[in-house]
Amino acid sequence: MMPLTMLNSGEDAAIKRIGGKDEAKRFLEKLGFTVGEKVKIVSSNHGNVIVQVKASRVAVSKGIANKIMV
After folding, report:
1. To 5 degrees, how large is the angle CA 67–CA 32–CA 13?
2. Neighbouring residues of 37: CB distance < 8 A, sequence distance ≥ 6
3. Whole-number mean pLDDT of the chain?
4. Confidence at residue 26, expressed as pLDDT on a 0 to 100 scale
5. CATH number of 4-69
6. Neighbours of 11 (CB within 10 A)
7. Are 42 and 53 spatial neighbours (Cβ–Cβ below 8 Å)?
8. Which residues pair with 1 in a beta bridge?
9. E strand segments, the chain
10. Which residue numbers in the chain have pLDDT < 50?
11. Cα–Cα distance between 41 and 2 in angstroms, integer?
């Protein structure tokens, strides 16, 4: 298990665990980040990670992406 930020662009993986406060977990769940869901890194720059989850592309901060374990 490793944080989402460790994946390179184009790589995909399944979410195994989401850490953080309950409020952050609920927010991510509403965006489609749930345990078992496949995610793919579209791109990563200095402050954000763009992730494809379900049929959407979502930008999340590296701090949040570090709480998503794949």
Report:
1. 60
2. 14, 15, 53, 54
3. 94
4. 93
5. 2.30.30.90
6. 12
7. no
8. none
9. 12-14, 17-18, 38-44, 48-53, 56-61, 68-69
10. none
11. 14
Quickly tell me which residue has 């994946």 as its tokens. 7
Measured CA to CA, the distance from residue 26 to residue 6 in angstroms comes to 23
CA atoms within 13 A on the CB side of 2: 7
Task: Give φ, ψ of 30 to 5 degrees.
Answer: -65, -30
What pLDDT does 45 receive?
87
The CA distance from 19 to 47, in Å, is 19
CA 36, CA 16: separation in Å to the nearest integer?
A: 6
Please say whether the beta carbons of 15 and 69 come within 8 A: yes
CA distance 23 to 52: 22
Q: Domain residues of the chain, as ranges?
A: 4-69
> H or E stretch including 28?
helix 22-31
